[in-house]
Amino acid sequence: MVNLLFKILNFFKKRLKDPEEAEKEINLSNLGSWLDFCTKQIISEFDLDNEILNYINKVNDSRFSIKTKVEGWQKSSELKSYGGAEKIIPLFIETKRFLDQLVFSEQVSLDEILVRNSLFEQNLTKLIRYLEDSNFAEDYDFLNKNDGANVTINPLFKELIDLDAFRKSFERAVIQSGYIKIKNLKERLGLINETISRFRILQKELERKKERLALTEAKRKEKEELVAKFKEDPDYVSREDLEKERKSLLKEINDNKEEILTLFNKLKPLLDKYKVLHPENTLSKDYIDDPVSAFLGDQGLAIKHSLHHIKALLKLGRFSLSPEEVDSYLQFLYRYDDNYFDELHKNYFNLTVEYEQKGSLLKEDSFAVRIEDALFRLKHFEEQVNKLEEEAFSLEERTIGMKNMILKEKELLQNLIKVGLGKELYLKCEF
Question: Which of these three, 177, 198, 222, is where a domain ends?
């Protein structure tokens, strides 16, 4: 043990004092090779290859010895005569299964042994727990009846503990050599390198996104300039005026319809009474159900004759109305005479014709079509630019976040190298 400690101290002192060994700056991309070099030095300095060989031989010898004893116990006459044999035999079978798994290949590496040892420790813990819970844990005297020995500890438990002692001794030597520290540094470096790979993929994606953004922005600017050029053209102003006129005409048309609806809604009670007196007059029903459609579809304005007839019936008192109501309706009908209905009808159709004519001019104007196309494309590229800007911004934020994370991990790795290996290194990281 003293010699081993001396080797450890000598190894690290030598590494600290060797000026050629103490590189102050190293690229993160070269750190893996540097750690491999340190690993080889440790393996050589602490003769870990020989430690591996001795460990495997000890495990193999112990494994063979335990398996031989267990098989002997399982076949012994003492066990056969023992009352609880059926509960002990499964334990022996489980022990042999554990031993059969504890085999190392001839060209096994140190890392592979450490992985196998972890599984070895887990399986051994389960087996010992199985042993402790069995009858055999306390009742094993029947195995020593022939030789008269007084065994104070369970023989299988002792063999397994001795076997595990080889593992602990080997792992202690590996830990004291500093190999585990370098192994952990390599694993951390591997995680950093994975993050750097993802970072570079993200960087390329960001570059492509920015290229697309630049191309789309150029297209947007091109369409913006084209629209500005169109706006300077006299025809563009005419188009704007034309659209304003159509909007104004549409308002007049709707106002005209509203006037028709209001007028005949006031006459509806009178038309209902007239329909009762003259059910053969279908025109009155049309005006009651949909006055606007009825009036616009009444090309000869036959409604005027019906209203003249209603006026005469009012004067004759043929409707069940009070004198005041009769007088009110007569005044209303005198106010809205034939000329009013003619003008109202004519005005609607004139407005409609003018509205459609101006709409046709817009559709037939190739210049207008080009303007609409330019405006549509400008809007499309504006939307694309906004979308790409948002995506590029999100990617840039992720890139910055990942870069900061890499730098923090690099700083932590530097500190771990300093604490674990006693080396002052500055790790360069190129993005």
Answer: 177
Q: Which residue has the higher pLDDT, 85 or 349?
A: 349
In angstroms, the Cα distances linking 188 to 113, 197, 211, 317, 398 are 20, 14, 35, 108, 22
Assess whether pLDDT exceeds 80 at residue 142.
no
Cα separation values, 396 from 138, 388, 389, 393, 425, Å:
68, 12, 10, 5, 30
The domain of 308 spans 232-379
**Contacting residues for 128 by C-beta, under 8 A, at least 6 apart:** 157, 160
In a domain, residue 205? The reply is: no
Residue 252 shares a structural domain with residue 154: no
Domain count, the chain: 2
Neighbours of 55 (CB within 10 A): 21
What DSSP string describes 195-218? HHHHHHHHHHHHHHHHHHHHHHHH
Q: What is the pLDDT of residue 318?
A: 87
The pLDDT tens digits for 103-117 are 988 789 999 999 999
340 or 77, greater pLDDT? 340
Q: Which of 38-52, 68-82, 306-320, 372-386 has the lowest mean pLDDT?
A: 68-82
379 to each of 76, 82, 217, 244, 384, how far by Cα in Å?
A: 93, 94, 12, 22, 9
Please tell me the predicted confidence (pLDDT) of residue 341. 87
What angle, rounded to 10 degrees, do the helices at 155-177 and 110-133 form? 150
DSSP letter for 365, please.
-
What is the reported pTM? 0.58
Asked, for residue 127, whether it belongs to a domain, the answer is yes
Structural contact between residues 64 and 16, judged by C-beta atoms closer than 8 angstroms: no
Distance CA 182, CA 186 (A): 6
Alpha-carbon distances of 26 from 17, 55, 343, 410, 414, rounded to whole Å: 18, 36, 96, 12, 11
pLDDT for 227-268, tens place per residue?
A: 888 878 776 655 677 788 889 989 999 999 999 898 888 888
Indicate whether 163 and 258 sit together in one domain: no
Same-domain status, 238 and 371: yes
**Residues 348 and 275 placed together within one structural domain of the fold:** yes
Write out the H or E segment, with its range, that includes residue 26: strand 25-27
Whether residues 170 and 238 fall in one domain? no
61 falls within a domain: yes
Q: Are residues 267 and 148 in the same domain?
A: no
The pair of structure tokens assigned to 295 is 């009036």
C-beta pairs of 379-384 under 8 Å, 24+ apart in sequence: 381/216, 381/219, 381/220, 381/223, 382/220, 384/216, 384/220
